[in-house]
């Protein structure tokens, strides 16, 4: 490279570094400030959440397909990279036109403030970290690009250690070099690391609710889960267990940071079209008789054969009783539950009141709800996809109508009504597996919540459909394991399955994607017998 080119690269590189360091310091200062506001107010979170809120259905489906539940990590990295690029550009621009660099900082500040204000459960103080971050970023940018401000005018064009290239374009304010620059940049990076570290630590200390969760003692259920008549477990290797352990239970939500509500601080308000508003705290709620029920929860974003389904033993307070006490008006056909992070979920009132085990759950598989699954209280309604029933971190239920209110996912292209579709999944053998010849179990799970599974059939290649053996039914609200033993002959094979529910409906082979109201089709795998 020519000396001039090298010089250009070096000054621009140094200027870009100024931008990056100023940007990093701004983010660190914002993180630190968020420790005194709330975790959700950190600009990386508010900006990421705003992106999530604005993601159209197609893009969301794509992201889930590409990244699964790592989509949030990908988003965080994306926002971070974007910010870094902006910061570097601002640094380069500021070398020549400081005002333009500062304008860039201002624009980022406005964007982050707007992001904080656009969150549905926004608090006014949420803008403070963004404002502090922008101010710190601006000051850092000035100090780094115009070190004369810090060290006095004279030093600006007099590099201390003989790196004279920096002074070679005297018409453009130079980037400081030598020990003083190292002091500045090093100091800023050090300050950033300390601020961010202390900020994160303070956030953990101040907002972590795991202590509150460990203090929760659930009362024994007044109505324990009924014992199933025989084994719901077929005990086949690689088959999903009937009850999904909490650590394996899928997690789907829009929360970039998990909402953390201490049980002691939790309150639920039932209001809207009701005769008597109810406000109830955690102690009052758990003093009521609780039921314990096995219920299979399923995400509308679960593709045919997908992983976003699980069964837990939920303990909770029957929701219908509470609603009867509130006196929900007959015309209120929709219950909108709201979480502490502003998610809204709309559930048909009639479904909640029809006698099924709709509950405000406080326990999951014998423990208080895990924080990611909605601690301290969430809703669970058998038979409905999660996005229309299973509000986590619930703080409010409003009785309203479908005509009057669209819950979060509805304007984003998802159906207002979301009953779970009858479906089934092959767990073993795996797609693309190579299996030795002989007697092979073809096994999986089938579900038709609140209807119940009546039969599962298995088809190898184009041979006749075979009746699979079903595990004992736990309840109509849970999935059911099945197995069919296959005398497998060598060669490549296609295996597919279909379930029939207790209404007589046979799972359709029509392949439909997850939007707007849940995927259909027969789960089909290819495998080879060796
Ligand atoms: N507050 C809140 N509750 C929520 C969601 C959410 O994004 N925020 N997602 C819903 C969806 S789409 C599903 S499928 C279930 C998933 O519950 P889980 O994460 O406990 O499996 O939670 C539901 N409740
Ligand atoms: Mo979902």
Shape: globular
User: Could you tell me the strand content as a percent range?
Assistant: 15-25%
Count of distinct structural domains: 3
The end-to-end distance, rounded to whole angstroms, is 59 Å
Helix percent band: 25-40%
Low-confidence stretches: 155-174
Major β-sheet profile: 5 strands, mixed
Question: How would you classify the helix and strand content by structural class?
Answer: alpha+beta
> Helical stretch count?
12
Instruction: Provide the residue-averaged pLDDT.
Output: 92
What small molecules accompany the polymer chains?
A: the ligand Nc1nc2c(c(=O)[nH]1)N[C@H]1C(S)=C(S)[C@@H](COP(=O)(O)O)O[C@H]1N2, molybdenum atom
Main β-sheet, spatial strand arrangement? 2-1-10-5-6
Layout of secondary structure:
Elements: H1 3-34, H2 43-53, H3 57-67, H4 71-96, H5 98-118, H6 127-145, H7 148-151, H8 178-207, H9 210-215, E1 267-272, E2 278-281, H10 282-287, E3 291-298, E4 309-318, H11 319-326, E5 334-339, E6 344-348, H12 349-353, E7 359-364, E8 367-368, E9 378-380, E10 394-400, E11 423-428, E12 434-435, E13 438-447, E14 453-460, E15 466-467, E16 469-470, E17 480-488, E18 491-501, E19 524-529
Parallel strand pairs: 1-10, 12-19
Antiparallel strand pairs: 1-2, 3-4, 4-7, 5-6, 5-10, 7-8, 7-9, 11-13, 13-17, 14-15, 14-18, 16-17, 18-19
Helix pairs in contact: 1-4, 1-6, 1-8, 2-4, 2-5, 4-5, 5-6
This protein binds the ligand Nc1nc2c(c(=O)[nH]1)N[C@H]1C(S)=C(S)[C@@H](COP(=O)(O)O)O[C@H]1N2 and molybdenum atom.
The ligand Nc1nc2c(c(=O)[nH]1)N[C@H]1C(S)=C(S)[C@@H](COP(=O)(O)O)O[C@H]1N2 binds next to loops.
């Amino acid at each position: 490279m020519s000396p001039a080119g090298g010089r250009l690269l070096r000054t621009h590189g140094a200027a870009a570094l100024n931008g990056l360091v100023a940007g990093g310091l701004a983010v660190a200062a914002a993180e630190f400030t968020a420790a005194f506001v709330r975790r959700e107010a950190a600009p990386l979170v508010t900006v990421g959440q705003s992106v999530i809120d604005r993601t159209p259905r197609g893009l969301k489906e794509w992201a889930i397909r590409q990244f699964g539940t790592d989509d949030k990590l990908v988003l965080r990295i994306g926002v971070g990279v974007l910010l870094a690029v902006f910061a570097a550009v601002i640094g380069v621009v500021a070398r020549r036109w400081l005002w333009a660099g500062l304008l860039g900082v201002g624009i980022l500040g406005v964007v982050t403030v707007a992001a904080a204000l656009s969150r549905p459960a926004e608090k006014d103080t949420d803008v403070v970290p963004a404002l502090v971050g922008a101010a710190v970023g601006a000051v850092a940018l000035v100090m780094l690009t115009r070190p004369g401000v810090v060290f006095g005018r004279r030093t600006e064009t007099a590099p201390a250690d003989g790196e004279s290239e920096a002074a070679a374009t005297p018409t453009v304010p130079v980037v400081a070099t030598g020990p003083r620059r190292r002091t500045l940049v090093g100091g800023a990076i050090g300050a950033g690391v300390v601020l961010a570290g202390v900020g994160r630590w303070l956030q953990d200390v101040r907002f972590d609710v795991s202590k509150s969760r460990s203090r929760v003692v659930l009362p024994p259920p007044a109505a324990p889960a009924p014992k199933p008549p025989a084994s719901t477990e077929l005990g086949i290797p690689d088959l999903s267990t009937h009850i999904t352990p909490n650590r394996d239970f899928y997690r789907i939500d829009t929360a970039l940071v998990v909402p953390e509500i201490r049980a002691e601080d939790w309150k639920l308000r039932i209001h809207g079209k009701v005769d008597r508003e109810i406000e109830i705290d955690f102690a009052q709620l758990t003093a009521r008789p609780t039921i314990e029920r096995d219920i299979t929860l399923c995400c509308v974003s679960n593709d045919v054969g997908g992983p976003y389904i699980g069964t837990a033993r939920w303990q909770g307070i029957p929701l219908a009783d509470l609603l009867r006490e509130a006196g929900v008006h007959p015309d209120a056909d929709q219950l909108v539950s709201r979480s502490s992070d502003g998610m809204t979920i709309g559930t048909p009132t009639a479904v909640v009141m029809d006698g099924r085990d709709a509950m405000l759950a406080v326990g999951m598989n014998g423990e208080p709800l895990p924080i990611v699954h909605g601690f301290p209280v969430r809703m669970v309604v058998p038979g409905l996809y999660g996005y229309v029933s299973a509000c986590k971190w619930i703080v409010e239920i409003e009785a309203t109508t479908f005509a009057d209110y669209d819950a979060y996912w509805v304007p984003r292209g998802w159906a207002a009504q979301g009953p779970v579709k009858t479906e089934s999944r092959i767990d073993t053998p795996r797609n693309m597996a190579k299996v030795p010849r002989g007697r092979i179990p073809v096994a999986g799970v089938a579900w038709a919540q609140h209807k119940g599974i009546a039969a599962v059939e298995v088809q190898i290649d184009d041979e006749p459909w075979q009746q699979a053996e079903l595990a004992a039914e736990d309840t109509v609200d849970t999935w059911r394991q099945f197995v069919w033993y296959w005398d497998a002959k060598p060669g490549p094979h296609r295996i597919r399955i279909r379930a029939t529910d207790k209404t007589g409906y046979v799972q359709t082979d029509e392949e439909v994607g997850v939007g707007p109201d849940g995927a259909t089709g027969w789960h089909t795998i290819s495998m080879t017998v060796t």
